[in-house]
TrEMBL record:
InterPro entries: Peptide/Ni-bd (IPR030678), SBP_5 (IPR039424), SBP_5_dom (IPR000914). Residues 74-438 form the Solute-binding protein family domain. SUPFAM superfamilies: Periplasmic binding protein-like II. Residues 1-22 form the signal peptide. Keywords: Signal. Transmembrane segments: none annotated. It holds the Pfam family SBP_bac_5. Belongs to the bacterial solute-binding protein 5 family. This is ABC transporter substrate-binding protein.
Length: 529
């Protein structure tokens, strides 16, 4: 299924890509990236964390069965050389690479792949990657403690595995993110692994200074000849947009994610506007509602929230146009996005009417958990509160760190929260987060349960015809719009500033900060030697 990416690339962003192809990449140097989504990394065990913040370093350190091919706009094989499909589209036989070495010098085998997937399905740990591995037959039984190993995963020989799926899907969309990274089976279970992780990626771990940075060095036995180009990657934690701005202007970092204020400033600055790369991504920003909290159990109340908020005003004034209005869950870049769908209009009278019908004519009060994130956190919540107040709904703010918010969301310890969640690139995998069989910690954060929705999604998973599948996915997405388990806020428009000496930036990855770092290189003009 082709992933359609809407990319608007300004000035030097496009020039950077063209230059990368025209010039011979330079060996050596240091790439200085930023981790802009919080004041810390959650963990050095990437299986445990669904945060975009952590995948930035993990893309350099680890590898998964597939990788995202930005030029083709789809996942392609990475740790395997071929995939033979049989069994009516449900059985995949992977011939693994025999030249992939872990950073401790040991060659990867089928045992490592099987061990990693079984680890991710440990139900007592509730690893977020379970949402993807669950597509393998028998994985859910391991998660529930009914089996020790995934029955749909078989070792044929050291470099061949057979994988039987529950749905007729492209497994690439389930096994390309860092959440399904392959760990060394003999090291992954050790305590020491969390302090000094061992991966298969182009760069090996050197140090982690908590709250500051992660440093990685070139792995000379990486399986792609001549890569990586750089000697070192430093990922510095910079949660504040203003701090990133100063560092970028002072040439202390090579890439910087721009906040709304910087986006406007860089566009109007002759020296900086050429550094902007600007892409529509596969993330939906939203307010999630806990249906165990009585008012939110009523669909009319959830719909009322959507009518009560002037979403366009917030996107224009606060997000400075650095986003696209959300209609339902699936973003603009999704192959199943329905262009004919219109977002909830701003209609406080309709909101009041629905609240009255639901028995809340005089409103109610709830607690809203948020991080400080400027694009989908406290500033947005602060703007929404008076709008809700206008229809009688009072919101009390509970502010937490971004890393804490990720746990709050997974455990269901909230009345409402505001978040940014991956909603692509594959629409079936994205909508599976609302299937009643998906546990809350995996990605069904609102604990949404709807039999009709499940039925449509199950049918889509078994559909042989791509057009029929898309039609069913659009139907499921429309049902979500009506059920309104969330306030549909916006789809992310990622904006990154890139220094002219950094080459090889991919224009349409699934998340702009998640670059295949083995492709990046710096020329002689880089101030970092």
């Amino acid at each position: 299924m082709m992933f359609r990416m809407i990319a608007v690339v300004a000035g030097m962003g496009l020039a950077l890509a063209a230059t990368a192809e025209a010039e011979t990449p330079r060996k050596g140097g240091t790439i200085r990236m930023t981790a802009p989504y919080g004041s810390s990394f959650t963990s050095l065990d990437i299986h445990t964390t669904q945060r975009a913040q952590d995948e930035i370093y993990a893309k350099a350190l680890h590898r998964s069965l597939y990788i995202w091919d930005s030029a083709q706009g789809k996942p392609v094989l990475e740790l395997a050389k071929e995939d033979v499909v049989s069994g009516g589209g449900l059985v995949h036989t992977f011939k693994l690479r025999d030249d992939a070495y872990f950073h401790n010098g040991r060659k990867m085998t089928a045992d490592d792949v099987i061990w990693s997937y079984n680890r991710i399905m440990d139900g007592s740990k509730a690893y977020p990657g379970a949402r993807f591995v669950r597509v393998i037959e028998g994985a859910a039984a391991v998660e529930k403690g009914q089996a020790k190993e995934i029955s749909g995963l078989k070792k044929i020989d050291d470099f061949t595995i057979e994988m039987k799926l529950t749905d007729k899907v492209d497994p690439g969309f389930y096994f390309f993110t860092a959440l399904t990274s392959i760990y060394p089976a003999d090291e992954g279970a050790k305590e020491s692994f969390i302090q000094k992780p061992i991966g298969l990626g182009p760069f090996k771990f050197v140090e982690h200074v908590p709250g500051s940075r992660i440093v990685l060095e070139r792995w000379d036995r990486f399986y792609k000849p001549g890569k990586p180009y750089a000697d070192k990657v430093i990922v510095s934690i910079m949660a504040e947009a203003a701090a990133r701005d100063v560092a970028f202007r002072n040439k202390e970092i090579d890439t910087s994610v721009l906040g709304p204020a910087q986006y406007v400033a860089y566009q109007s600055d002759a020296n900086l506007k050429g550094t902007i790369v600007d892409v529509a991504e596969v993330f939906t920003r939203y307010m999630g509602m806990n249906t165990a909290f009585k008012p939110f159990a009523d669909k009319r109340v959830r719909q009322a929230i959507n009518y009560a908020i002037d979403t366009d005003l917030i996107i224009n004034k606060l997000v400075k146009g650095k986003a696209y209005r959300a209609t339902s869950w699936l973003p603009l870049t999704s192959p199943a996005y329905d262009k004919s769908m219109k977002p909830y209009p701003y209609d406080p009278a309709k909101a009041k009417q629905l609240l009255t019908e639901a028995g809340y004519a005089s409103g109610f009060e709830f607690e809203w958990t948020t991080s400080q994130n400027e694009s989908w956190g406290l500033p947005i919540v602060s703007a929404v509160i008076p709008m809700l107040d206008k229809v009688g709904i009072k919101a009390k703010v509970k502010q937490v760190e971004t890393a804490v918010l990720a746990e709050v969301v997974r455990t269901g310890d909230y009345q409402a929260f505001i978040y940014s969640q991956q909603s692509g690139p594959d629409p079936l995998a994205a909508l599976k987060c609302f299937h009643s069989s998906t546990p809350q910690p995996a990605c069904n954060y609102m604990n949404f349960k709807n039999a009709e929705f499940d039925k449509i999604l199950d049918e889509a998973g078994q559909a042989d015809d791509a057009a029929k599948r898309t039609q069913l996915l659009q139907k499921a997405n429309a049902l979500l719009y009506d059920e309104a388990p969330v306030w549909f806020f916006n789809y992310n428009k990622a904006v990154m500033a890139v220094q002219p000496w950094l080459h090889g930036i991919q224009q349409n990855p699934t998340e702009l900060t998640h670059q295949n770092v083995e492709e990046l290189w710096v020329d002689e003009t880089s101030p970092a030697k």
